[in-house]
Design a protein that fits this description.
Strand content: 5-15%
Order of helices and strands: HHHHHHHHHEHEEHEE
Largest sheet: 5 strands, mixed
Structural class: alpha+beta
Number of helices: 11
Helix content: 55-70%
Distance between the termini: 41 Å
Shape: rod-shaped
Length: 411
């Protein structure tokens, strides 16, 4: 029974709610007792009626203090005062002239029920039951002493016993239900943790698959494009670096496959240590891996747009976009049957977009075999992990256009 509240708030809130409900019921009992005393004094001429009304009024005032300041001190003060009130009322009511056969009567029931419904300081089922039992015991003890003073019979009050039973049942049910809720919450937390672990594992599996696919395929394409003879030193260094990433601890991190120097050489010999304004020492954002992959694959790449918009992406998001674009260019070199492609960079609607276009043989995406993971994993899954999307248009013997869009920002 949490009423939709968080677990750390439910216990305190429900305990206070039950205590407040008990206080309201106690005020009703004391109010009825005060009304009976006033009526007996005004209509029946019973002087003791005024005394009982005043005594119950003092008890009601102390209950207000307990409700506002529920401390151990105020609770004990209320119980002590309430016990004195019950004792005084028992002496008055059990006098021979009132002809009550025993202490099991409505006049003595009202303050004794109010003692049971004290609520008390602290929260929790055990504390609530403890204060209720203490109030019941003190009320019965006071009634017993009052009856003994008048020589009357003492009988446990049925209303007080019923009130105690209600409090015990309500508090016990609250405690048991909260324990069940805690167990369910633990189970939900465990299930949530397992779901999170599965998501992380799936993410790493996608990264591992994309990393292995990109590395092996890009280098095979580059080696095939290099022709016969010795392998270029730059290509050899790139292969060695990527192999080190695969077997090292950073295999799941998207790294640029080339240095800024490589990107600069792929962009018509530009100096990567110089930004668009010609200032040295500042590296402008670029698609390093994509540009180098195109150069290694022998693609003549025509670039349009402003590389500066890539600066709106976080490093991790830019690296993922870079790797996905690189895979698009490798696919062009491997499958399109052309030696040139276009790369367009743009910004709109809070997204950075990169379009890769070729005028090659085209293909039907629905006919791509399930075991071909380049488009599905290295491109789509990688971009979608960053909250982006990939759109593809391809026509046989006309060409293919792939548009990759990712939101601004990111890590």
């Amino acid at each position: 029974m949490t009423l939709g509240l968080p677990a750390h708030l439910a216990r305190d809130s429900l305990s206070r709610a039950l205590a407040h409900a008990g206080h309201c019921a106690a005020w009703v009992c004391l109010g009825v007792g005060i009304a009976i005393g006033v009526l007996s004094a005004t209509t029946g001429g019973e002087i003791a009626g005024w005394s009982s009304a005043v005594l119950l009024g003092v008890m009601a005032a102390l209950l207000v203090v307990v409700a506002r300041v529920p401390t151990v001190t105020t609770t004990l003060l209320y119980l002590i005062t309430g016990t004195a009130v019950v004792l005084a009322l028992a002496v008055l009511v059990m006098a021979p002239e009132y002809r009550f056969e025993s202490t099991n009567n409505v006049i003595l029931a009202l303050p004794r029920v109010a003692l049971v419904l004290v609520g008390g300081a602290g929260v929790g089922s055990v504390l609530g039951i403890t204060w209720a039992v203490l109030g019941y015991g003190l009320g019965e003890a006071a009634a017993f002493l009052g009856a003994a003073v008048d020589g009357a019979d003492w009988v446990p009050n049925v209303a007080a016993v019923a009130a105690l039973g209600i409090v015990v049942v309500a508090r016990s049910f609250d405690g048991i239900s909260r324990r069940w809720d805690a167990r369910r919450e633990t189970g939900l937390h465990r299930a949530s943790q397992q779901t999170r672990e599965l998501a992380i594992r799936h993410d790493y599996e996608l990264r591992a698959t994309a990393r292995l696919h990109d590395t092996a395929l890009s280098h095979l394409v580059a080696i095939a494009s290099a022709g016969s003879g010795p392998v270029d030193d730059r290509l050899r260094d790139g292969i060695r670096q990527d192999l080190g990433l695969i077997v090292g601890r950073d295999w799941a991190v998207d790294h640029g496959a080339a240095s800024a120097d490589d990107a600069g050489r792929a962009c018509a010999g530009g100096d990567p240590a110089t930004d668009g304004a010609g200032r040295s020492g500042v590296t402008a954002p670029s698609l390093e891996q994509a540009l180098v992959s195109a150069a290694n694959a022998g693609l003549d790449l025509h670039v349009t747009g402003d590389f500066a918009v890539l600066g709106l992406l976080g490093p991790a998001r830019l690296a993922a976009l870079d790797a996905a674009v690189a895979q698009c260019l490798i696919n062009v070199a491997r499958h399109a049957g052309v030696t040139e492609a276009e790369l367009a960079i743009g910004l709109g609607g809070g997204e950075v977009t990169v379009a890769v276009m070729d005028s090659g043989v085209g293909f039907d995406e629905a006919e791509v075999p399930e075991d071909r993971i380049g488009l599905r994993t290295s491109i789509r899954a990688r971009v979608e992990q960053e909250g982006g999307n990939v759109r593809l248009w391809s026509t046989r013997n006309v060409g293919t256009t792939v548009v990759l869009a990712v939101p601004e920002g990111g890590e």
